[in-house]
What does this fold into?
Amino acid sequence: MTPTPSPRRLSKGQIALMVSIDAVAVVIAVSLFIWLRPKDSDAAVLALIAPLVFGGFFNLVIVLVSFKP
It folds into this structure.
């Protein structure tokens, strides 16, 4: 009988790291949006989106690294 592997799950520390990355990304995105809004509205929208994508990418990296085969 072959042993079944335990289910792969994120630890509480990894989840806390992902939440903190998201929080920092949201704070940076909103602050850049507010700062750039009076100067250039198109740049403000890009400044809002870029940190969120960057934070999402780091969350994806954390998930993929933690799920080792």
About this structure: The CA atoms of residues 29 and 48 lie 4 Å apart. The mean pLDDT is 87. Residues 41-66 form the longest helix (26 residues). The two ends are 20 Å apart (CA to CA).
